[in-house]
Amino acid sequence: MNFLVRAFGALALLSSPALVATGLFAQGIEPLPQASEPAPLPDPQFLQSDDETPWLYEGSNVPVDREWKFGKIDNGLRYAVRNNGVPPGQVSLRVRIDAGSLHEEDSEQGYAHLLEHLLFRESKYLDVGEAIPRWQRLGATFGHDTNATTSPTATVYNIDLPAITPESLEESFKLLSGMIQEPVLSDTNVQAEVPIVLAEMREQGGANQRVNEATLETLFAGQRLANRRPIGTPETLGAATGATVEAFYSRWYRPENTVVVAVGDVDPLRLAELVEKYFGDWQGEGALVSAPDFGDPVPPAGSDGGTPVGELAVLTEPDMPRSLNYAYMRPWRPVQDTVVYNEGLMIKAIAQSIINRRLETRARSGGSFLYAQVQQDDISRSADATIVSFAPLGGDWEAALADVRGVIADALATPPSQEEIDREVAEFDTAFASEVEQRSVIAGGRLADNIVRAIDIRETVAAPEVALDIFRGTGPRFNPEEVFAATRKLFEGDVIRGVYVTPQAGEAQEAALRLALAREVSADPDARLANRAVSFDELPAIGPAGTIVERKNIGLLDIEQVEFANGVRAVLWSNTDEPGRVSAKVRFGAGYRAFEPEDAPYVTVGEIALVASGLGEIDENDLDRLATGRKMQFDFGIDEAVFTFTAQTRSADIEDQLYLFAAKLGMPRWDPNPVLRAKAAAEIGYASYSSSPAAMIARDLEYYLRSADPRWVTPTPEMMADVTPQGFREVWEPRLKEGPVEVLVFGEFDREAVIETLRETFGALPPRQPLVPEIANRLPQFPASDAPTRVLTHRGDANQAAAVIAWPTAGGTVRLRESRQLEILTELFSNRLLDALRERLGASYAPQAISRWPTDIPQGGTIMALAQLEPENVPVFFEEAERIASDLATKPIPQDEIDRAVQPLAQRYSRAATSNFFWLLQLEGVSTDPTRAQLVRSLIGDYSQTRPEIMQLLARRYLAARPGWQLAVIPEGQELAQGQTHERPSFEPTAPAMMGR
To answer: Rounded to an integer, what distance in angstroms lies between the CA atom of residue 106 and that of residue 228?
Structure first.
């Protein structure tokens, strides 16, 4: 069993009497029922022996991963099973059908995806609408643990089962087999599900989708992929009937096209037995049909050698930033997945990494493009393509294209240096070695997905040790000659195709793009990085090592708090539960509270440029050099009340990681280039916010939720125009010096060595400047209860809208336990909203409700519901949301409904609890608020136990005490539709007794 779960689970159990004493959880929810072991099943008959070549490895000499057990039933169905205990008690099931949108005829477009919906709607063992609640009762969250995806080449059904019992495991196999083998494909079900799919299509629409469609049509001209979106078309979906969908199902849903993958905390023989029991009798209807020919990229007629420029497109989208993608297209062919083949892939990967580093270096230095990259990919078994993507900084796209092509031309003219190769090899080696270190904590769901992906590209899987051995065995081939040869192959093809997107009509024409792509360019060697070694050993000390003034246990397990004379505090938990992994986080300063109203542009730029600006004499390129061959991160975040640095690193690198974090505070660098690049990115991207309602919500929701607090505004290009590197420093330099610092390190590390490193880094910082009361006391303000509906407009499709309704809650830790119960209430709200808007009305594809509760300030929490809809349905959303809020406050809530909310939520937290980072997040801030350590003891219980009356009291307190604040995003030129007036009951906002104590 995972130590983290065991340790904190024990704490949760110890706290139960206290919970009962408060009366809060006097009638807790029972855990998933424990059943007696079902009757023994026959031994699996079709499991392949160790002497046989497993079906996945046929034609390959890659060493077989013997932790997998493979089987092939005589009906043609193949399966793979494996034991894995991450997270404990979970089983991950995947059923892959070798049929996606490329298998559809013209009149069937969208049927593969529609079937995905219909299988969840009704099947042999599940009546209409039973699938979601049935899986919830088994602890699975709809959309998270139970889901499906349709790609051009396959449809995959995903079930992750938490807290399995023998009974629930067999029940799940039974339900899933009924869905796959005997769905009810009636006219009634098709007519009910098509509006939901059309809602999903609507939410995908807009400028982005138009660009995606045009790109596929251009790059894959003449192939099925050019016009086979998995979502389909309104015409083909509108014409779908039970009979036509049944015909597609019968053609492709058959055992020969099916692979079942099962991974989890169970004997793999038991998993094999269940696969054979529930899928062994399945027989396809009629003769097996071969997959259609997906086609090949074809050069234009009359081409004479070389790689000719073929189909091109210039798209004008006023709200989209400039981008140019062009591709070297080659036919896709099946390969023998051998060791030599994989060595070739690794050499190509090194070649791409070298070019991409050069392109990034050029962009950082103030070039003509914001970003550029090269990516080779095998796409939907339709093409082997090398795609070059970049964003011009302005309207001179030809100069940007010439600059990008110049870097590539240099790579094609001159071999890379061995130093460049070695640098990229070190990066890959670290990644492969890290997988070996952490193989014992690889989640079962990820292992199952790896098998599915391997089948999709017709390749194998390899154990982490095997992958590392193959990579290191390729070492002698990582030389300038072989990498140079691989580079040249990347830029060979049958045809070049490309798409330029611009907001400015008339800026480019297809003929000009054709000439620019065909034009000879000069090799540009300036982006090659000079050989410059940078070592942590050469970096200066941050200051004299600090003095430890206190070391103490926080009162929870073996978690220690260390305080230094300068006021910095560290919270450390050294454990071996995640081998090699270390999670680190630094919390400092005041977060958004620190800024003045006019600082918004610098807030936006800071999120991108602060870390990139470097430290001391180390610029952004030197930071990359320091991280070569290391597992290091430097993520910066701005929270409501603190700034954060975060990293997922490893035992060998944690000490240098801490140096980087401390040096950013103690000796920051103010390089202007990252500031100017971030400024350009913000200016270029702003117009795209108007392209859809979802983008408008991303732009403005947080701003309006805080009563139009200017610190939270997304700055316009006009606001960004005044940003300067000097102004950036004036805003950010004081922010790095003020407010308390807390360092959290959780994972496998040498405690005493890390404490000494902290003494030399964070302990060496100057004393922090205190937060002035004006900053410390700034709190977010929720809109007034009588605020009118806020209406925003977008310039996307005329049938797209979005709506948000929100209620204020609270914040801080005094009522933190109440916030956990609010998450259960929000799950109830979300389930009802999904049922109302998706299942009954077909008005929205994925409505949801969210609860947010900041722990560092006493207010600012919200319960929020949101959905994307058609404009005329915006009032319907508000009415349904208010009705749900009222019903939760006034009508008894059935226990079964509470169970269906509690079980998935509790299981989600139980699984997350296998991670050190999860516990770090629960305990951040504990050095200044010791009550957080005690509140951890009740965490599991607070999420897994409640009563109907508690839910009703919370609904009265938060959902019925005032009207919900409303925001609507509708198309430009339209008026907000009017709905019915909704009467709200009035309540005294009383709190449940002892809630949060």
So the answer is: 9
CA distance 948 to 899: 10
Residue 478: give the domain boundaries: 309-527
Query: Letter for the amino acid at 662?
Result: A
Residue 72 and residue 219 share a domain: yes
Question: What angle separates helix 397-413 from helix 480-490, to the nearest 10 degrees?
Answer: 140
Contact 255, 76 (CB under 8 A): yes
Which of 776, 802, 821 is the last residue before a domain boundary? 776
Same domain as 711, residue 827: no
Same domain, 660 and 626: yes
What residue type is 608 in one-letter code? I
* Spatial CA neighbour of 111 closest among 204, 195, 229, 221: 229
Same domain, 475 and 541: no
Instruction: Give residue 355's pLDDT.
Output: 98
Report how far apart, in Å, the C-alpha atoms of 82 and of each of 75, 153, 437, 659 are.
Answer: 22, 25, 20, 41
Give me the DSSP letters along 86-130. SSTT-EEEEEEES--GGG--GGGTTHHHHHHHHHHH-BTTB-TT-
Query: What integer is the mean pLDDT of 335-349?
Result: 98
Last residue of one domain, picked from the residues 753, 776, 799: 776
Angstrom CA distances, 889 to 697, 761, 881, stand at 28, 53, 12
Q: Are residues 563 and 514 in the same domain?
A: no
pLDDT surpasses 80 at 835? yes
CATH of the domain at 141: 3.30.830.10
Taking residues 97-123, what's their average pLDDT? Answer: 98
Considering the domain boundaries, does residue 60 fall inside one? yes
Checking phi first, is residue 305 left (phi over 0); if not, alpha (psi -120 to 50) or beta?
left
List, for residues 574-585, the tens digit of each pLDDT value.
Answer: 999 999 999 999
Provide the 10 A C-beta neighbour count for residue 554: 20
CA pair distance 578, 360, nearest whole angstrom: 34
Residues with Cβ within 8 Å of residue 63, at least 6 apart in sequence: 462, 463, 466
Structure confidence by residue, pLDDT tens digits, 773-794: 999 999 999 999 999 999 999 9
Residue 741 sits in the same domain as residue 613: yes
Beta bridge pairs of residue 264: 83, 91
Q: Is residue 566 part of a domain?
A: yes
Query: pLDDT tens digit string along 193-234?
Result: 999 999 999 999 999 999 999 999 999 999 999 999 999 999
| Cβ-contact 856, 925 below 8 angstroms | yes
Q: Does residue 213 lie within any of the structural domains?
A: yes
Contact indicator for 919, 842 with CB cutoff of 8 Å: no
Task: State CA 104 to chain mean position distance.
Answer: 29
Are both 754 and 701 inside the same structural domain? yes
What pLDDT is stored for residue 37 in this prediction? Answer: 56
The pairing of beta strand 78-83 with beta strand 258-264? parallel
213 and 317 assigned to the same domain:
no
Strands of the 146-150 sheet, one edge to the other: 68-72, 78-83, 258-264, 91-97, 155-161, 146-150
Write the single-letter amino acid at 934. Q
79 CB-side CA count, 13 A = 32
Looking at the structure of the chain, the number of domains it has is 4
Cβ atoms of residues 428 and 354 within 8 Å? no
Model pLDDT, residue 11 = 40
Residues 437, 441, 445, 446, Cα dihedral to 10°: -20
Q: Indicate if the pLDDT at residue 993 is higher than 50.
A: no
> What are the angstrom distances between the C-alpha of 396 and each of 69, 399, 409, 514?
57, 6, 20, 15
3-state secondary structure 591-635: HHHHCCHHHHHHHHHHHHHCCCCCECCECHHHHHHHHCCCCCCCE
> Contact at 8 Å (CB) between 491 and 305?
no
Q: Is residue 32 part of a domain?
A: no
Residue 508's H or E segment, with its range, is none
Distances (CA, A) of 188 to 196, 197, 244, 246, 460: 14, 15, 13, 13, 41
